[in-house]
Design brief:
Order of helices and strands: EHEHHEHHEHHEHHEEH
Strand order of the largest sheet: 5-4-6-7
CATH architecture of the largest domain: 3-Layer(aba) Sandwich
CATH topology of the largest domain: Rossmann fold
Number of helices: 10
Radius of gyration: 17 Å
Number of domains: 2
Length: 231
């Protein structure tokens, strides 16, 4: 019997990609047209953005907790959140959650370690890049990291919030990401964390100057493994 996956959604494009990955890749494990039961709860993105703009970490945690409570009520066995930025509230929420969670940063860091990378470029919203979500998890695996500079962070943040989360994908955005990733590669990074769940919609191993760690699909695959494990 497979476990029921709960998705605590935040932004639509990232949550949709995570959901789609679970459903489509589940077939490779379970058979044609078969995937684990999946339920999603998504509050208005504006609620998360309001908390982020106020640096209200407790408020973000409360929103995540509300999703967990609602998902538990309809039978989910565990929860994932396909949004890197809000994971900065993970520790404020997890002890109150009625369900266990997978941490997106831990999933990505474990994958980076398994691939023998040493220094990771972190990309994502300004809120994510300035947080300890990835530095803390990378440190647990003995991995180094680098952040984009201030101007790069500002432009990446604009692309994510004004374009990618709105389903807008432009060649200029791809070029901007490629430039930032290429520069960080020249400064010693050997892979890049796509630390916003929308970034994989425009950047992947085919067009990135560095090998990519796709946080969205890695989280979805970790959820699939958890849901289909015999343990």
């Amino acid at each position: 019997m497979t476990l029921h996956i709960g998705i605590a959604g935040c932004s639509a494009e990232g949550a949709a990609l995570c959901y789609k990955t679970i459903c489509l890749e589940g077939q490779a494990v379970l058979g044609q047209h078969v995937h684990p039961e999946v339920s999603m709860h998504t509050p208005s993105l504006s609620e998360y953005v309001d908390c982020l703009e106020k640096d209200d970490i407790a408020g973000i945690g409360d929103l995540m907790l509300q999703s967990a409570i609602k998902l538990a009520a309809i039978g989910a066995d565990f929860v994932i959140c396909p949004d890197n930025t809000v994971h900065q509230a993970f520790d404020s929420m997890i002890d109150r959650s009625p369900l266990p969670w997978l941490h997106i940063g831990e999933v990505v860091a474990a994958e980076a370690a398994s691939r023998k990378y040493q220094r990771l470029a972190i990309t994502g919203t300004s809120w994510l890049v300035g947080s300890e979500v990835y530095p803390a998890k990378l440190a647990e695996h003995g991995l180094d990291f680098a952040r984009p500079n201030q101007d790069e962070c500002k432009e990446i943040d604009r692309i994510i919030m004004e374009e990618l989360t709105q389903g807008i994908f432009k060649p200029d955005a791809i070029a901007s990401f490629r430039q930032v990733i290429g520069r960080m590669g020249q400064e010693g990074c050997d892979a890049v964390i796509l630390g916003c769940t929308e970034i994989p919609l425009i950047i992947d191993d085919k067009n990135s100057p560095l090998p990519t760690l796709d946080s969205t699909r890695l989280l979805a695959r970790a959820a699939l493994e958890r849901a289909t494990s015999d343990d």
